């Protein structure tokens, strides 16, 4: 077995050989090119057979190549760090062995893009104040604690539980109201984990390319409507990793 293999970035539909330039992962300026079988191909570059650290430089190189390829092709992203021993292994164990699966998945993402949206409260105290204003029982316990009356520890635990439940409800309702404007414009949707108390949604959307302008406008309308309370982080188009990332195990 050689210590030089092939790093695999993506699978695409193509009946032509092509080179994308000397931009391979690892900083060696390896040429990125297509290894084909019939009408599908693996986007690859030469690479040592090794485990790549999940560093900023490596993940950025992987992502930039996906973004370069998706300028011309719908693609199936391959999981970061996937390396074949040689061309025959890619051809026989991926392109031939999984040909029907690849064609089906490529059909699913054809002419589609992924867009990402994170929405956060600008001031995390604002939803808390709304909850206090809306909930008489929360106000009562808060005021009792402020006056140092009653069982302080028990009231603190109860207040914390009530506030968390009310915050979760407010977050889910706010997210549901926003998604009701966006989901009719997309083909598929994934909700990723939210981080911290300020984040309302961390969503990925798969949409047809011809609907990108309409989707952009819908997000802009939401951002304008909620400009005083919410911050929108909108990214894309990006490779559809949330929907079709391929895992290849030798």
List keywords for this structure.
about 250 residues, Alpha-Beta Plaits, 8 helices, alpha+beta, 4-stranded antiparallel β-sheet, single chain, 2 domains, elongated
Please describe what this structure looks like.
The model has no long low-confidence stretch (mean pLDDT 90). This protein has 2 domains: 4-110; 113-242, Alpha-Beta Plaits (2-Layer Sandwich). The longest helix is centred in the last third of the chain and has 31 residues, at 152-182. It contains 8 helices and 10 strands. The protein has helices at 56-70, 87-96, 99-109, 125-134, 136-146, 152-182, 212-225, 241-244, and strands at 4-13, 19-22, 31-37, 40-48, 75-77, 83-84, 112-121, 188-191, 199-208, 230-238. Helices cover 42% and strands 27% of the residues. The strands form 2 sheets. Strands 1, 2, 3, 4, 5 and 6 form a 6-stranded antiparallel beta sheet that branches. Strands 8-9-7-10 form a 4-stranded antiparallel beta sheet. Helix 4 crosses helix 6 (152-182) and helix 5 packs antiparallel against helix 6 (152-182).
Helices and strands, with pairings:
Blueprint: E1 4-13, E2 19-22, E3 31-37, E4 40-48, H1 56-70, E5 75-77, E6 83-84, H2 87-96, H3 99-109, E7 112-121, H4 125-134, H5 136-146, H6 152-182, E8 188-191, E9 199-208, H7 212-225, E10 230-238, H8 241-244
Antiparallel strand pairs: 1-4, 1-5, 1-6, 2-3, 3-4, 7-9, 7-10, 8-9
CATH architecture of the largest domain: 2-Layer Sandwich
Mean pLDDT: 90
Order of helices and strands: EEEEHEEHHEHHHEEHEH
Low-confidence stretches: none
Gyration radius over CA: 24 Å
Q: What's the total number of strands?
A: 10
Number of discrete helical segments: 8
- Beta-strand fraction estimate: 25-35%
Query: What gross morphology would you assign?
Result: elongated
Number of structural domains: 2
- CATH class category name of the largest domain: Alpha Beta
Largest sheet: 6 strands, antiparallel
Q: Which class do the helix and strand fractions yield?
A: alpha+beta
Distance between the termini: 14 Å
- How is the CATH topology of the largest domain named? Alpha-Beta Plaits
- What portion of residues is helical? 40-55%
